[in-house]
Amino acid sequence: MRMTSAVLAAFVAASAFAAPDAPVKERALPRVVKKDGRFALFVDDAPYLMLGAQTHNSSAWPAMLPKVWPAMEYLNVNTVETPVYWEQIEPRPGQFDFKVVDALLAGARQHRVRLVLLWFGTWKNGSQHYMPEWMKLAPDRYPHMVDKNGHAVDSPSPYATASLEADKKAFAAFMRHLKEADPQRTVIMVQVENEPGTWGSVRDYSPAAQKLFEAPAPPEVLAAMQVKSVAPSPNWQDAFGPEAEVCFHAWSVAKYVGQVAAAGKAVYPLPLYANAALRDPIKPGAPGSYESGGPTDNVLSIWKVAAPALDVLAPDIYVNDPVAYQKVLELYHRDDNALFVPETGGPAGNARFFFSALGLQAIGYSPFGMDYTRNRPASEASQPREEFLTPWAQNYRLIGPMQREIARLNFEGKLQAVAEQKGQVTDTLKFGPWNAVVSYGPGRRGSAAGNPEPKGRLLVAQLKDNQFLVAGYFCRVDFFPAGTEQQRKSQQIVQGTGQIPSALIDGKWQHRQFLRVEEGTFENGVFKFLRIWNGDETDWGLNFGAEPLVLRVSVATY
Ligand code: DGJ
């Protein structure tokens, strides 16, 4: 039998989840690849889009997993993010126990999903709560940070050599175990620490830290932050003024996390990342008003130079305002950083922001707290068990069957995507000679009013010059001949009338016609034709409702 690439992809996917006792062939290592200024996460040697969901913090225990997998199944994820607890794997110094990790690997394989494991080590949300008991009971050896008044803070010192060495050792042991236990690459990425940094003090004020703060700032930091210095070897204060303390703390924390990451990577080079508790993306408050020292947007360049073993710096996005959400995505989508959203949440409508992330070539996305281990908020308690997951599940139901194609199209720069904003009834995506005009809410082409609560979302990918793949919910799309700026004005007038989308180009009207609007589904990487849309299905715009819908649209002009 000749193996087409689609058949091969299906074979690869199936064999990654071979039966537990079958001999397992070592698969290609997952890796973050950059080409032509764009990133992809390669899994099994091809671009992969993480359709993820993160469990609650205390859900990665074997007794809790029966309340995790059903939620993940309902969500249709291809990747589960879940913690690994330092306090559990190293109950006594140097004695490691990986039973819980093995239960996660087995469960993930059984449920045919990949894993992103979160190393809850020295830092978890700025604190040292996941350090093993034997460390917690020896604060002189594994010290806390000290605030301005000399009081211990609920945050580990980034200068504690014994803590650093212990974390490096434990993380390397964990990665070594993965290397041995996971030749099929069930684990595709590892998060090093969780929201590292400090709440309650901008930096450490211990005598040792103070000495470092007053010393010259490292030249690589000055270069990375493009500091034009007045003095030859400026200290942190001279170099960074009001941001000096947060930059200094970021350097200290990033150096530490970078060394832990490097120790693990030396053993088993999986893609690694660190996640950030954000500062306000629109009106950032002064240092001290947000978690200090983590990879917040103002210090990403410091983290890059201090922790090169980390492949990605990733935002945990818990903002609801679409402008702020978009801004965060833009801040972390950089030439030196792939966009990856390892945590997000909020009201149901926020599920549409998955499409905003896709529009900026996200390699993965993962709402937080997606399991059945905890009671839901009273406001949601009357909903059936699955309902709070539904808007997120909708995304993955639509994209799941074609995640490889979406990842590839995004890596090739052919995909754009949008999410509805309140008060904005249309969006325009530009593809050379064609503009894809998206309009939201009920109503026909040219009379869109927006959804009562914004929930519209759509992606468009250019397959050929005049052919597009379109998928989304609660909106409609049409294709306009692009024309010049002047010509677009006349186009708007025609758009407003609800007539055939047209543009006056070089003195001649160009009118859009559909050659073929095909509804289909993806199976094993191949578009499977279901039917041709025409008549009422196309005359009033191509409408996307509450059901997953994928169209392949061929257009021409007359
Ligand atoms: C962000 C943290 O990274 C998660 O582990 C979790 O604590 C959430 N906040 C809770 O909302």
Describe the 3D structure.
The chain is of the alpha/beta class and 558 residues long. The protein has 2 domains: 26-413, Alpha-Beta Barrel (TIM Barrel), CATH 3.20.20; 419-557, putative beta-Galactosidase from caulobacter crescentus (Chondroitinase Ac, Chain A, domain 3). Helix content is 29%, strand content 27%. It has 17 helices and 24 strands. The strands form 5 sheets. The chain has an 8-stranded parallel barrel, surrounded by 6 helices. Helix 6 runs parallel beside helix 10 and helix 10 packs parallel to helix 11. The two termini are 44 Å apart. 47% of the residues are buried. The model is unreliable at 1-12 and 492-497 (pLDDT under 50). The protein binds (2R,3S,4R,5S)-2-(hydroxymethyl)piperidine-3,4,5-triol (DGJ). Residues 57, 125, 194-195, 316, 343, 368 line the site of (2R,3S,4R,5S)-2-(hydroxymethyl)piperidine-3,4,5-triol.
Which features does this protein show?
alpha/beta, globular, disordered N terminus, binds (2R,3S,4R,5S)-2-(hydroxymethyl)piperidine-3,4,5-triol, 24 strands, 29% helix, eight-stranded parallel β-barrel, seven-stranded antiparallel beta sheet
Main sheet summary = 8 strands, parallel, barrel
DSSP strand count: 24
| Percent of sequence in beta strands | 25-35%
Mean pLDDT rating: 92
Q: Which ions, cofactors or small ligands are bound in this entry? A: (2R,3S,4R,5S)-2-(hydroxymethyl)piperidine-3,4,5-triol
Helix-strand makeup class: alpha/beta
